[in-house]
Amino acid sequence: MKKKHFSLLWRSRRHDAPDTAAIMEVERKNILSEKSDFFIRESYKTLRTNVTFSLADETACKVLIVTSAMQSEGKSITALNLAISYAEMKQRVLLIDCDLRRPKLARLLSAKEKVGLSNLLIQPELLGKAIHDSGIEDLDVIFAGDVPPNPSELLGSSRMKALLDSLQKNYDYIILDTSPVNLVTDACVLVPESSGVLFVVRAGLSERGSVLRAVEQLERSHAKILGFVLNEVPQENGYYGYRKYGYRRHRYGYGRGYGYGYTTRMIFNFPFKCCFFIITLPSDNAGTRGLIVR
Length: 294
Prior knowledge:
Blueprint: H1 21-28, H2 38-54, E1 62-68, H3 75-87, E2 93-97, H4 105-108, H5 117-122, H6 127-130, E3 132-133, E4 139-142, H7 151-155, H8 158-167, E5 173-177, H9 186-190, E6 196-202, H10 208-220, E7 225-231, E8 246-248, E9 252-253, E10 261-262, E11 267-269, E12 276-279, E13 290-293
Parallel strand pairs: 1-5, 1-6, 2-4, 2-5, 6-7, 7-12
Antiparallel strand pairs: 3-4, 8-11, 9-10, 12-13
Helix pairs in contact: 2-3
């Protein structure tokens, strides 16, 4: 296969991850649009408003990291929908897929990516080709590009810093969809270039110890954690006010090469007294409700 940009990039993608074509099709139905459920749209408006207030001291372009502890907790769809919500307010938004190991945004948007972030960090002159029109007004996207052998080094490089500094001149918000914190260091190396971190937690899936470890890693990186997005809460469990939440514990495994996996579950209570943005996304996508708890 001809290597157009640089010899070290791996063009092969792993296809044995749990996010199958059927699951991806369900996730696409949760992308914000005029046809989205009223409560879902209101949930993201509330999330957008609270993130905006959390970053009120930032006068220039805001760079927001969206991450999670482990895989399949909803960070990519959250990052995409938050970007769409800001774009609907006529804010200039750039969404960047920084999960160079298991990128997802191109599949969510059914896009055929060619040049992406990894290519751009090797060849900065590709910037014009790397920025893609999302099809949504005021929202541009940079997809992950080819899978490199050294994602953390690329994301923590001086070229990444220079790229973000350059892009901030043209956008009001830059949203970074990063790899899960507990699996690799990619999100943490981007913390110095960010205005804040939004942490995604999935009801019934995220494990208490896993979340605690991820938060500790982010705090060691001096991250400003804006809040936690709790998604896929069953509608019958929707409520206002303070309350502890039940989650399930997983024993996670690391597959060969890039990629992540998980198995078993146990119930536990979530310990944080932090701002939660609650978004309900049932698998059948019907009768949803969005709440926020502070």
